[in-house]
């Protein structure tokens, strides 16, 4: 699934790096720290990228088989065009219909669904794809486009 208007122009992304993380909660700040170093502390997309990355990595740890001693693979690209992050987990037997979830109005007391809404609201483009038949791994990716000051 993809949404939104703009996409990051490839060829304007000089920095790309990936790392494997354990499927444990301590990996969330490690993912942020890694991404901050790749993206750069003065990049205009940094804060949104770290927020969305936290949600996606947390989802991988919370909802996928990575939590059972598996890994989460993070891939970050950053440059003048923007930022792209990909998070691959170990998959899970079920995977909700994100379009259906997003089409429902969120309620203030909802205990679930905020991560996907944040990604859909903030990312210029995002999507997900399986690495094979369930429950093999899945990748969730998002892109943020760098905007010039008006
Ligand atoms: N990596 C994933 N693997 C399997 N299921 C996932 C994954 N990411 C999201 N999901 C499913 O999508 C649902 C919505 O994700 P979302 O992040 O919006 O909510 P949440 O993680 O349940 O709670 P929160 O609002 O705290 O993020 C999850 O409840 C889960 O069922
Ligand atoms: Mg979540």
What's the helix and strand layout?
Elements (H helix, E strand, L loop, with lengths): L14 E8 L4 H13 L6 H18 L7 E9 L2 E8 L8 H6 L10 H9 L2 E6 L7 E8 L5
Antiparallel strand pairs: 1-2, 2-3, 3-5, 4-5
This protein binds adenosine-5'-triphosphate (ATP) and magnesium ion.
Q: How would you explain this protein's 3D organization?
A:
The chain has one domain (18-124, 140-145): Histidine kinase-like ATPase, C-terminal domain (Heat Shock Protein 90, 2-Layer Sandwich). It has 150 residues and is α+β, with helices and mostly antiparallel strands. The chain starts with 14 loop residues before the first strand and ends in a 5-residue tail after the last strand. The protein has helices spanning 27-39, 46-63, 98-103, 114-122; strands at 15-22, 71-79, 82-89, 125-130, 138-145. The longest helix has 18 residues, at 46-63. Adenosine-5'-triphosphate binds at residues 55, 59-60, 62-64, 89, 92, 95-96, 112-116, 138.
* Whole-angstrom Rg: 15 Å
Number of strands: 5
Q: Can you identify the CATH class? A: Alpha Beta
Distance between the termini: 31 Å
Q: Proportion of β residues? A: 25-35%
List the uncertain runs.
none
**CATH fold title:** Heat Shock Protein 90
Shape designation: globular
In this entry the ligands are: adenosine-5'-triphosphate, magnesium ion
Largest sheet: 5 strands, antiparallel
Overall mean pLDDT? 90
Task: Give the count of structural domains.
Answer: 1
